[in-house]
Amino acid sequence: MSLVTLLTVFGTVALDTTRTPFRTETRILGGAATFASISASMFTQTSLVAAVGSDLPADHTKALRSKGVDTKGIVTVKGGKTFHYDSSFDYDLSNRTTNKTELGVIADFDPVIPEGYAKSEYVYLANNDPKQNIKILQHFQDPKLVVCDTIEFWINGGRDDVLKMISKTDGVVINDNEARLLCKEANLARCAKKIMSWGSKFAIIKKGEHGTVLFTSEGSIFPAAAFFLDEIVDPTGAGDSFAGGFLGHIAHRNKTDFATMKEAVIYGNVMGSFAVEDFGVKRLLGITKDDVEERYRKYRNLVQF
Amino acid sequence: MSLVTLLTVFGTVALDTTRTPFRTETRILGGAATFASISASMFTQTSLVAAVGSDLPADHTKALRSKGVDTKGIVTVKGGKTFHYDSSFDYDLSNRTTNKTELGVIADFDPVIPEGYAKSEYVYLANNDPKQNIKILQHFQDPKLVVCDTIEFWINGGRDDVLKMISKTDGVVINDNEARLLCKEANLARCAKKIMSWGSKFAIIKKGEHGTVLFTSEGSIFPAAAFFLDEIVDPTGAGDSFAGGFLGHIAHRNKTDFATMKEAVIYGNVMGSFAVEDFGVKRLLGITKDDVEERYRKYRNLVQF
């Protein structure tokens, strides 16, 4: 019996060592696909494809399952090491310095997906090797919507592969600075147009504390201020949680019209705002859909005039 | 017969030389009070207090009057020079370099106001010497709302005077970087709290292309994305036009409740978005209240979800 999977997330499940001037957390559960899938699972049935090493504590995959994430797509490479990312934040938590990046088992991962995942209607390619992303797409039968993110590491390492990946997606979610780097262009509206000229139908530029802007190839624009927080504990995973909330809401509604995309952007902002309230995925693990809906209403109330 | 003035703006009327990689405009009408008063005059009866030199072309004051600005408060210092600001923008129009600042007659201005202005219910202190700002406030009988802006020049030159000025106002409108400089604090929410601890009842942080955030001493917050423009011609005066639109709408409604302040922030954003569409005040001179209302509706439509 095959399970119909609505949303599949492919990317890193990692061990993060995160240092802020206030606290250090060592080898906690992290990774773009982790944040995105937990976030998406608040909205829809979400499956996760990732490679991990045998050093990943069983509690970590248990935590994912506790939020309803289907972890059958996690491949454990025996004797291999889980991707480990060690970084430090400065005093105002806005600048991150990378101390160490140990790719481990993800370096040579040849992505495979459990049989049931092939029917996924929604696919999110979290910050992974664009070559692997292109490869995994061949395993899906006919997804309605494929969205990817990318980071400096891949843009610098192989911009052509990133462009090729974008040509195979419907939408791109990307940080402002990485959009500028990728597009060789300072103006974000022009960056978005360039991304869409490569084959994507929409582009969402994430501006951190300044919120997000959604651009569509039909010329529609939706700028959204970030949810306002007094206190941020750990900014790690905000963008990935945004993407999970965005895709999760779209998959839940099973619609991709502009009105639904705008709601999805706000749900994305809401999920990002939860993620940064504690270290790693701690806060995301502790919230319910009611908390999400309450903050969505609070956000609507905050920005309305 | 004394004229009841609703809003008085005090600050610089200047000659601006503005250089972008695309064009240079020499000694055009500029200055914080110019942008603010033209912008405010779209909403309410606005009077302008400023010192200029005899080199200011008559066409410039005529332009102000053509928009309904009461220019009786402009003092022409015979033989003196009008404030001249020469600056260059880089390719993406986001960084400005000052080439020359010639204070001219504003350096030793002892502000006086025409008799009728004393009854002004609303006063906006544009980017001027905080000492002069404190002095001019004594001439007003009992204003309902006094708002000021300030810039790096005065913060570096006399932070204590800036703090004293803030203690005598009801609200502060300030750029993000200048808020950080003034408050010695990176987090903008904490900056706003600090500003309000000095006696102001609200603070609006302007974040350029990222919009604005309004904070009130009652703990209310209103983040607003900027109106989205494909093309910016000259960013000069955006913040001053924001302040003029903000104060203008409040004076027009003659209310200072939170709902009115939120509307005023959006009108401020709208006026800032017009200002940057052409060099100097050119665009502001060409628009009508209908254009303003149309863009306000467009903005509402843009950000709603």
Provide the structure class of chain A: alpha/beta
Rg over CA atoms of chain A: 18 Å
Strand tally of chain A, please? 13
Order of helices and strands of chain A: EEEHEHEEEEHEHEHHEEEHHHH
Strand order of the largest sheet of chain A: 5-4-1-8-9-10-11-12-13
Estimate the global geometry of chain A from the Cα principal axes: globular
Largest β-sheet summary of chain A: 9 strands, mixed
Low-confidence stretches of chain A: none
Beta-strand level of the residues of chain A, as a percent range? 15-25%
Tally of individual helices of chain A: 10
How many angstroms separate the termini of chain A? 51 Å
Mean residue pLDDT of chain A: 94
Q: Helix amount of chain A, in percent?
A: 25-40%
- Multimeric state of these chains? homodimer
What is the largest interface, and how many residues per chain? A-B, 28 and 28 residues
Can you characterise this structure?
The structure is a homodimer of 305-residue chains. Chain A has 305 residues and is of the alpha/beta class. The first copy, chain A, is built from ten helices and 13 strands. In chain A, the strands form two sheets. The first copy, chain A, has a nine-stranded mixed beta sheet, with helices on both faces. In chain A, helix 2 links the parallel strand 4 and strand 5. In chain A, helix 5 crosses helix 6 and helix 7 runs antiparallel to helix 8. At the A-B interface, strand 13, helix 8 and helix 10 of A face strand 13, helix 8 and helix 10 of B.
Task: List the SSEs and their pairings.
2 copies of one chain form a homodimer.
Chain A: E1 7-10, E2 14-19, E3 24-30, H1 32-40, E4 46-53, H2 58-66, E5 70-77, E6 84-89, E7 96-102, E8 122-125, H3 130-137, E9 145-148, H4 152-167, E10 171-175, H5 176-183, H6 188-197, E11 202-206, E12 212-216, E13 221-224, H7 238-253, H8 258-275, H9 282-286, H10 289-303
Parallel strand pairs in A: 1-4, 1-8, 2-6, 4-5, 8-9, 9-10, 10-11
Antiparallel strand pairs in A: 2-3, 6-7, 11-12, 12-13
Helix pairs in contact in A: 1-7, 3-4, 5-6, 7-8, 8-10
